[in-house]
Amino acid sequence: MRNRQFTDQRIAHWLAEDADLRLHLDPETGVNAYGVPPFPQEEVGEWGSATASAVSQASFQVLRQWAPMVAENPDRRPIQENLARELLRVMGLDAVHYGANLYSSGSNALSRGGQHVLGQMKNPLLILCQGSETGSRVPEALRDALGCTMAEVISLPVRTEVGDLIPAALRDDLCWTQAVHWLKSGRQVLLVLTDGTKTGQVVPGVDCTREMVARYPEQLHVLVDACQLRVAWSRVKDYLDWGWPVAITGSKFVGGPPFSGALLYPRARYQDVGWDGPVLGLGALLRWVSALTEMKRWHVVPKEELGRYLARFQAALEQRVEGWPALTLESMPGLERGSDPDLWDVRPTIFPFELRGPTGRLLERGALEALYRRLPQAGAGVRGRWGQPVRLGGGGGQGPERWALRLCLGARLLIPWLETLSDDCVTQTLDRCLELLDRTVVEAARIG
Fold this sequence. Notes:
Blueprint: H1 8-15, E1 45-47, H2 57-71, H3 77-90, E2 98-103, H4 106-118, E3 125-129, H5 138-146, E4 153-156, H6 168-184, E5 189-195, E6 202-203, H7 206-215, E7 220-225, H8 233-241, E8 246-249, E9 261-266, H9 282-300, H10 306-321, E10 327-329, E11 350-355, H11 365-374, E12 384-393, E13 402-408, H12 411-420, H13 423-447
Parallel strand pairs: 1-12, 3-4, 3-5, 5-7, 7-8
Antiparallel strand pairs: 2-9, 5-6, 8-9, 10-11, 11-13, 12-13
Helix pairs in contact: 2-9, 3-9, 4-5, 10-13, 11-13, 12-13
C-alpha cells in the first residue's frame, strides 16, 4: 500500500504549487485560473492545447511513482539536472553541444533567455510580436530582463486593426521596415521569433530572420519563443545550431500540466549559462516529470503521415462547418517555415473560431469566457475544453472587438492517429470535434 502521505490528493496539491497565482486552485470549483483541475479528466476532450490541459491518466500514474522520491529528497538539484538531461535526450539533443535549464513557466525561461542574450548586447532594443498574440506575461518579462523602456519595444503586427490575419510575406516586410532603421543606426536589437503565437503563426518568418541576421550579425540577436512547442523538433535543433536560444514548455501542444518551462541553448555560444538557475520547487519538478512522460510518447510515434492527416482534418473541418451560420472558422494558411516544406509543422494545428448568438451578433469576451468554463462541465452533450478566448482585433473605433475560441490539435489528440496510421482514426477525431462544436453553438445561443 502506498504511503498515505502520497495520496492522489496530495500529488494534485503539489502540482498546483507555484508562486504564480494562476496555478492555484479555486477552493469552490477545484480548478485553476485556466479552468483545469490537477487530476486527470479523461471524460473531457482536450481541444485546448494552446492554453492548458488536465494531466493525463498515464502521466499521473508516473507521478505516483516519482512523488515519494522527489518529496523526500532534501537535495533536489540533481533531480532537476537529470530531468533537464532527459529533456535533451528525448528531443534528440546531445548534452555535449546543447544545454537545458528548467523553469516553472515559459515566461521565466524567456526572461532568463533575454538575460543571457543581454550579456552580448549594449543598450538593446526589443522587437517581438504584438501582445495579443503572445503570452500575457512575455512582453513584461522580456522588457524587465533587458531593462528596456516601453519606447524601446517594437511590436510586430500579426493582424490588422479589425482582426484579420496579415499575410506572412507582408508581416516579414513590416519586420524589415521596423528593424532596419535601428540596425542601420548601429543599435543592438533582440528579435524574438515567436514560433507559435496564440493563433498558431510564426512571426517573423524563419527565412526573413536568417536573412536579417546574415546582414547584421554583430547587432541582431535572436531568441526563439517556441513555448507552444507546436513545431518539429528537428527545427528546434536548427534554431540552436544557428546560435539562437529556444524557450519551450512541456504543456500546451505536448499536453503536460501548465507551468513547465525550459530554456534550450547551444553550449558553444552560451558556455557560462550552466546550472545557474534556482532549484525548482516540488510542484514544478513534478510538472516536468509529467510533461516528460507526454514528450516521450510523442517522440516515439512516427510522423511521416502526420502532414497528410492534418491536411485531411483541416479540409474536412472547413467543409463540415461551412454551413453553420452561428460559427465562423478562420481560414488558416500553411505556415512559412523555410526549409523542409514536407515536415508536418507547415500545417496549422490551431483553428480560431468566432461565435454568434441568436441575434446574429458576435459573442464578446465575457460570453466566450463563460462558454470556455461551461463546456468541460457535465451537462447535455459531450464535454470538452477549447483554447481560451483570444482577441483578434476591433475596438477603438474599428468596430466591436472580435474574440475567438480556439480549436487546437495537440499531441495527445494526434498520437492515436500515428499509432494506428488509420484515416478512420482521423475521422473519429473529427466527429468528436464536431460534437463539441455542436454543443458549443447550442450553449452560445443560450448565453447570447
